């Protein structure tokens, strides 16, 4: 009897110490992992001033790749001359950009087939036969408006919500 009670007391004391340690650790972990609703509200500011016509950069928005591309007049003309009715996911370049600034093409860098990161935003990367982006996973080709033109992807690269905060900066999200 006597021994058992002491064991119980020891176990109770250990459990209490264990709970105390957990209570201290949990708030630290919480701070390092923003909750889903905090992430959903996060926006990303992008400085456009150094991105020359013909160039693109890869950054991230809500933990996913984001492509920011400065189209050349030729790339804009190529996108505009396509008959939208022939597209799998019909949209004009104008509809995929804001404020009439068709040279700034902002899209998620996530293939709409199975989510690979397409090539074409990095210097010298393969942009595919339509001059936009090329997904090497299963060969989806996107045009200069990042619209799907060939391969298995069902949709254009997604355009996130964004606005210009100045002539040379955007706020995404
Ligand atoms: Fe891009 Fe399949 S994930 S073509």
TrEMBL record:
<keyword id="KW-1133">Transmembrane helix</keyword>
<dbReference type="InterPro" id="IPR014349">
    <property type="entry name" value="Rieske_Fe-S_prot"/>
</dbReference>
<keyword id="KW-1015">Disulfide bond</keyword>
<comment type="function">
    <text>Component of the ubiquinol-cytochrome c reductase complex (complex III or cytochrome b-c1 complex), which is a respiratory chain that generates an electrochemical potential coupled to ATP synthesis.</text>
</comment>
<keyword id="KW-0411">Iron-sulfur</keyword>
<dbReference type="InterPro" id="IPR006317">
    <property type="entry name" value="Ubiquinol_cyt_c_Rdtase_Fe-S-su"/>
</dbReference>
<keyword id="KW-0249">Electron transport</keyword>
<keyword id="KW-0001">2Fe-2S</keyword>
<dbReference type="Pfam" id="PF10399">
    <property type="entry name" value="UCR_Fe-S_N"/>
</dbReference>
<dbReference type="InterPro" id="IPR036922">
    <property type="entry name" value="Rieske_2Fe-2S_sf"/>
</dbReference>
<keyword id="KW-1278">Translocase</keyword>
<keyword id="KW-0813">Transport</keyword>
<keyword id="KW-0472">Membrane</keyword>
<keyword id="KW-0812">Transmembrane</keyword>
<dbReference type="InterPro" id="IPR017941">
    <property type="entry name" value="Rieske_2Fe-2S"/>
</dbReference>
<keyword id="KW-1003">Cell membrane</keyword>
<dbReference type="InterPro" id="IPR005805">
    <property type="entry name" value="Rieske_Fe-S_prot_C"/>
</dbReference>
<keyword id="KW-0479">Metal-binding</keyword>
<feature type="transmembrane region" description="Helical">
    <location>
        <begin position="8"/>
        <end position="29"/>
    </location>
</feature>
<feature type="domain" description="Rieske">
    <location>
        <begin position="73"/>
        <end position="171"/>
    </location>
</feature>
<protein>
    <recommendedName>
        <fullName>Ubiquinol-cytochrome c reductase iron-sulfur subunit</fullName>
        <ecNumber>7.1.1.8</ecNumber>
    </recommendedName>
</protein>
<dbReference type="Pfam" id="PF00355">
    <property type="entry name" value="Rieske"/>
</dbReference>
<comment type="subunit">
    <text>The main subunits of complex b-c1 are: cytochrome b, cytochrome c1 and the Rieske protein.</text>
</comment>
<keyword id="KW-0408">Iron</keyword>
<dbReference type="InterPro" id="IPR019470">
    <property type="entry name" value="Ubiq_cytC_Rdtase_Fe-S_su_TAT"/>
</dbReference>
């Amino acid at each position: 009897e006597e021994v058992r009670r002491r064991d119980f007391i020891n176990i109770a004391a250990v459990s209490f110490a264990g709970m105390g340690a957990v209570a201290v650790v949990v708030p630290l972990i919480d701070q390092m992992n923003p909750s889903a609703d905090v992430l959903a509200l996060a926006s990303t500011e992008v400085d456009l001033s150094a991105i020359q016509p013909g160039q693109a950069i890869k950054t991230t928005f809500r933990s996913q790749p984001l492509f920011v591309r400065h189209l050349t007049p030729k790339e804009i003309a190529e996108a505009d001359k396509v008959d939208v009715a022939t597209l799998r996911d019909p949209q004009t370049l104008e509809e995929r950009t804001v404020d009439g600034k068709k040279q700034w093409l902002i899209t998620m860098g996530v293939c709409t087939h199975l989510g690979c990161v397409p090539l074409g935003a990095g210097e010298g990367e393969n942009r595919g036969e339509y001059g936009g982006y090329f997904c090497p996973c299963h060969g989806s080709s996107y045009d200069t408006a990042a619209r799907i033109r060939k391969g298995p992807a069902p949709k254009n690269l997604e355009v996130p919500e964004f606005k210009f905060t100045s002539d040379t900066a955007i706020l995404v999200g």
